[in-house]
Amino acid sequence: MLKKLLINMIIQWQRKKTDYDRPIAIRKATEKLAHRYLRMPLNCMAAEVDVGGIAAEKVWWYGKDEKRIILYFHGGGYVICSPRTHRPLVCRIARECGAMALVPEYRLAPEHPHPAAVEDAIKSYRWLLKSGTKPHRIAVIGDSAGGGLALVLLQQLRDKKIPLPACAVLLSPWADLTASRTTIKANKRKDPLLEQKALEKFARYYVPDCSFDHATASPLFGDFRKLPPILLQVGECEILLDDARRTAKKARDADVDVEISEWPGMIHVFQYLAPFLQDSRKAIEEIGTFVKRHIP
Predict the structure, then answer these.
(1) Among the options 74, 86, 124, 144, which is catalytic?
(2) Mean pLDDT of the residues in the chain
(3) For the segment 142-200, what is each residue's pLDDT rounded down to a tens digit?
(4) 144 classed as catalytic
(5) 132 CB contacts (<8 Å, ≥6 apart)?
(6) What CATH topology corresponds to 2-294?
(7) Active-site position among 238, 280, 286, 294
(8) Active site residue 268
């Protein structure tokens, strides 16, 4: 409990210093912090690759390759973060899944607004197929905005009649950019990382010219029929809790095989805290079990 409180205090202190009117500055600061403090686990490796013109990172764990492929989309509100900021998390997930992970550096807003990220996600998936990867060996995973992007990708692949992946994992997905969720107020004081002001700013950077309820921006308003099995993980203290719950309900209503795992006392993308919190490590183990079940 003391460790959780300390982590929350540090995150809140960092959030108060953030100026959301300077998105490029936030991005640079995030990259700098990641370079200074984040370290990959021993025996985890990363290499830059070109994915049909899109920069990406290949992340793998020595001795854990079981011919599964993870296509991972990092979070950051479509404005900040990169494969570099998410290396430790992706590496731990890859280890538990016995997989190699591909993390595209999709284009970010405000320089590249919607639908640039969606176009890059589809292009990355097509590249995997063209490179010889079978769709039934692929798991699509994403956190926060990356979780929303992963869900958009599934809907777009189905609509374009492109073979779907074996399964998907959405970590605290940002699935609704309209901010029409009750947990924004209910969890306002519990969530040390996200606040409504940040979501509104980042949503407008990403979608400057069209409605937020467009399905390729807010996949919660999209069609869930015939999607592959989905695992949702979310912390009960975060303001995006409703996004995960409503996504799970829409998936169930469309007869999609969906599981939702709500973690008491946990914050947004708490899996990132695996070096410090046992619940974060257990959540990553749950991801590995789910992926291995669907990609045996």
Answers:
(1) 144
(2) 91
(3) 999 999 999 999 999 999 999 999 999 999 999 999 977 677 777 777 777 788 888 99
(4) yes
(5) none
(6) Rossmann fold (3.40.50)
(7) 238
(8) yes
